[in-house]
Design a protein that fits this description.
The chain contains 4 helices and 12 strands; from the N terminus they run E-E-H-H-H-E-E-E-E-E-E-E-E-E-E-H. It is an alpha+beta fold. It has a domain of about 120 residues: Cupredoxins -  blue copper proteins (Immunoglobulin-like), CATH 2.60.40.420. Strands 5-4-3-7-10 form a 5-stranded mixed beta sheet. The protein starts with a strand and ends with a helix.
Length: about 250
């Protein structure tokens, strides 16, 4: 993109024209694609994949609707541009079948999107009767406390610590999180899980996940809770079961 001087309009003033080079347009398109694809990161949990599928479905539906709408607008502009009133197509005051159609089509689309969204919500809210691992999560100003049920293992840390608290969990097993708050409302959020659950004082919110990929995943508080909210982080390390058992033994010994 380069400015080119056209002619001086007045002393000390210039009129400039912005020239769009093909390379600039290409970079702009690539940047737009990168931004759009980055909106929904690939989930590492079985439950989060249902959210990925939901985003994909909404994206395809939006793309189809946009293509049809923009195509009709472009066709109308090209077909009837620069014509006088005598060349306009036939005009009418009302068309009941057409009005019913453009009311029915959006209604069907909204109904389909609603049903698909509810199906994804059912997957996210589904709970297992006997999860392999249960972790009680307590958010407080400004840190996290993780207690492993039946293991006598507690991991905690605050925003003032050099490193955020890190917990270890097994992959390919159902993990139940029971989230609550000690003082104000906090938000238990792991971006790679595509999931967030509020930590509310006096209330326990449970959700189950199955982590499918080993790795280290950052978590954070997603509800503004005071001065050190931005530093209220934690880390989840997903490993194989054997490594998880060794880690539990080490924590019990400590």
């Amino acid at each position: 993109m380069q400015p080119r001087n056209l002619r001086p309009e007045a002393p000390g003033r210039e009129c400039t024209l912005i020239e769009m080079r093909p390379r600039s347009r290409t970079l702009g398109v690539l940047a737009a694609v990168a931004i759009l694809t980055a909106c929904a990161p690939e989930s590492v949990t079985e439950q989060g994949r249902s959210v990925n599928r939901l985003y994909d479905f909404f994206t395809v539906a939006a793309a189809v609707i946009f293509t049809i709408t923009a195509g009709l607008i472009a066709w109308s502009i090209a077909r009837y541009r620069g014509r006088g009133e005598e060349d306009l197509p036939e005009q009418w005051h009302s068309n009941v079948p057409l009005e019913i159609l453009w009311f029915a089509v959006p209604s069907v689309i909204v109904a389909v999107l609603f049903v698909v969204s509810m199906n994804s919500l059912d997957v996210l809210d589904e709970k297992v009767e006997a999860p392999e691992v249960t972790v009680a999560v307590e958010g407080f100003q400004w840190g996290w406390r993780f207690s492993y049920e039946g293991e006598d293992v507690v991991i905690s840390g605050t925003a003032q610590d050099p490193d955020p608290p890190e917990i270890v969990l097994p992959v390919d097993e159902t993990i139940s999180f029971e989230v609550t708050g000690a003082d104000v409302i906090h938000g238990f959020y792991v971006p790679k899980f595509l999931f967030k659950r509020d930590a509310i004082p006096g209330r326990t919110n449970r959700f189950d996940v199955t982590i499918e990929k080993p790795g280290v995943y950052e978590g954070k508080c997603a509800e503004f809770c005071g001065l050190l909210h931005s530093d209220m982080n934690f880390t989840i390390s997903a490993v194989e079961r054997a490594k998880f058992d060794r880690w539990l033994d080490e924590q019990r010994g400590g």
